[in-house]
Amino acid sequence: MIPLMKNAFLHEEEPKKALSEFIMQAKRLSMGEKCKEFEEAFAKKQHAKHAILFNSGGSANLAMLQAAKNLDILKDKDQIAFSVLTWATNVMPIIQLGMRPVAVDCEPTTLNSMSQHLLEILKKNKKIKAFFITNALGFAGDLSNIKKICEKNNIILFEDNCESLGTELPEGKTGSFGLGASFSFFVAHHMSTIEGGMVVTDDDDFAEMLRIVRANGWDRNLETYQQKKWRDGYDIKSEFHSKYSFYDLGYNLRPTEITGFLGLYQLALLDAGLKIREENHNRLEKKLKENPDFIPLDRSHIKTLSPFAFVVICKTPELQEKYKVRFEKADIEVRPIISGNTQRQPFYKKYVVEETVYLPGAEFLHHNGFYCGNYPELTEEDLEIISNCLNKD
Predict the structure, then answer these.
(1) Which of 6, 125, 354, 356 could connect to 377 by a Cys-Cys bridge, CB 3.0–4.6 Å?
(2) Model pLDDT for residues 216-237, shown as the tens digit of each residue
(3) Cα–Cα distance list, 357 to 235, 328, 350, 366 (Å)
(4) Is residue 11's pLDDT more than 90?
(5) For residue 43, what pLDDT is reported?
């Protein structure tokens, strides 16, 4: 079988051995210096001022919206636009935190919400306070144009970059266009810490609040001058009582030192892994373009592609079923294009009382697309099997 992902780590035996040695010699395994080292290294890699490590990408999404509410830049009942082709943990925090989700369509040939989709929403709805965009499956929309629209309309832009680590537009890396961006290090992603996530931001206040949100609402992981600011603001003079002072709403979303150690280890291998993913994609894409049953994806606006998987978009639902069955018979594991049209998801129907809107791009991908794995461990035989499944006959 060709699964979505073969191993938890690139060169799996080496990090497993290194991890076992680290665990045996580490003085502590709860969040500490290794997590801080990984944060600093990842921020440098992403060209960001701050990186805040979390126990998952979903937690990172939740923390961004909670931090925005804590800072009073978002409030209860605010309308938050979101890419309708997304993962559930982009939309769930909007609902859980008492705000209203507004679905934004996507372009099938890019997989992503584009600037024209946001403009269409703004023609009908002038109350959008934030846009939580998903950079789907290694691809991205025209983020620089979207950023300009958001700035013009005083809309806060958040990016879910969990599936697009390493993708770059001419204007910069994905995950660098908004107030904050989330990343995931789950086992099936570009780099793995087993579970883990990150938020990057250039905003000092947002970074400070994310650290408060991550750890119960207290100040224990802040710099000394930041702790003094919070303690003075609430007249907490006792060092004893400051240990259990909680300043704003938070959770326990902390990672462990294992996360930090694995992050540093895998970050050093990231570029080599991304290069192989792109080579695999180019080979399979060339084969896909030979078959008129498929719609090739448009990445003409992308400088560097960091594919998360290999995406197959068929021209009709009947063709989707035909090729999906062919892949499955060849023992190739396949998945829908993320959640398809999120408005169709059971949780969305239960909690979002407004009527769903017809979004043709999301509907097309919901019925016409699927993807299979693309990762460095694919063998020549694996790639040949996948290629053969893309043949016309």
Answers:
(1) 6
(2) 999 999 999 999 999 999 999 9
(3) 50, 33, 15, 15
(4) no
(5) 98
Question: Among 209, 232, 267, where does a domain finish?
Answer: 267
Are residues 344 and 276 part of one domain?
A: yes
The amino acid present at 71, given as its one-letter code, is L
Cα–Cα distance for residue pair 47/42, rounded to 1 Å: 8
In a domain, residue 52? The reply is yes
Give tens-digit pLDDT for 76-103.
Answer: 999 999 999 999 999 999 999 999 999 9
Cα dist from 301 to 190, 204, 371, whole Å: 21, 31, 22
Among residues 267, 287, 312, the one where a domain terminates is 267
Residue 369 is encoded by which pair of tokens?
């697309």
